[in-house]
Inverse folding.
């Protein structure tokens, strides 16, 4: 067993060093030249939250009537920004770092993984802000907070799988970037972030609400909101969908998305340097 662990450490030692340095470099370059620096990772979702809160909650009355909806809106905004940022930046990572592929020999997937991990650092900072605000916004912290960790891992796995898939396609087809921007906008409004899922069900579209809950991104965001902020008010796929086997669908789809991203990336990664 010790020999196996030692051989794995020696095999992946160089890859881990490159990964760590790329994560550090990407995170530093993201805010290089800005006066506030890393604070923008907190200010950006807060400003977006303020706009959505005023427009959708105050003016358009998008709310479920619960005291935790505002902090739930902030949490959903931070989670969606992570998914959007990690997939978009991961999609362009190989093309943007093409010079490294031609100069240094290392596993190509590290470039995409390091980019998504940089977004994960920003998410960790934002969730600390959410927890802090939640103490003043009627959030109900229970032992379920521990269940947030596997949900975040699942959200990261989805984001990494999508980023690997898009990154592979973007090397060959730059149009993917424009298509993904449109799809992200559509997915954002289809995900119950700025409006409660109960609003869809109360309009007589219970079947549509159930379908939305079976989408992996929606399921993870709702699970994190439920376990972190409000087990009483935020529904999950388990409380909305009656069929237990059907409730497993978003978890299975998450695994499939990650596997598909890895499979496509490994199949075409050998030609990336040549194409670029």
């Amino acid at each position: 067993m010790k020999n196996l662990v030692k051989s794995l450490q020696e095999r992946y030692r160089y890859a881990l060093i490159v990964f760590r340095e790329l994560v550090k470099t990407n995170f530093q370059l993201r805010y290089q030249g800005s006066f506030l620096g890393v604070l923008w990772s907190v200010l950006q979702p807060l400003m977006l939250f303020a706009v959505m809160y005023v427009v959708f909650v105050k003016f358009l009355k998008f709310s479920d009537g619960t005291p935790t909806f505002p902090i739930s809106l902030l949490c959903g905004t931070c989670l969606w920004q992570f998914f959007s940022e990690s997939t978009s930046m991961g999609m362009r990572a190989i093309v943007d770092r093409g010079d490294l592929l031609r100069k240094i020999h290392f596993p190509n997937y590290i470039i995409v993984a390091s980019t998504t991990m940089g977004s994960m650092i920003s998410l960790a900072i934002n969730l600390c802000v959410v927890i802090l605000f939640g103490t003043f916004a009627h959030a109900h912290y229970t032992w379920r907070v521990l269940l947030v960790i596997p949900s975040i891992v699942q959200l990261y796995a989805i984001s990494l799988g999508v980023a690997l898939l898009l990154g592979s396609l973007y090397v060959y087809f730059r149009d993917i970037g424009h298509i993904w921007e449109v799809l992200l906008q559509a997915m954002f409004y289809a995900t119950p972030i700025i409006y409660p899922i109960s609003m869809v069900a109360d309009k007589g579209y219970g079947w549509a609400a159930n379908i939305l809950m079976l989408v992996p991104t929606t399921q993870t965001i709702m699970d994190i909101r439920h376990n972190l902020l409000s087990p009483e008010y935020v529904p999950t796929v388990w409380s909305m969908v009656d069929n237990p086997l059907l409730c497993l669908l978003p978890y299975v789809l998450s695994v499939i998305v990650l596997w598909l991203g890895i499979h496509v990336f490994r199949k075409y990664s050998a030609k990336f340097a040549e194409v670029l």
The chain has a mean pLDDT of 84. The two ends are 41 Å apart (CA to CA). Residues 144 and 227 are 5 Å apart (CA to CA). The first helix runs from residue 2 to 30.
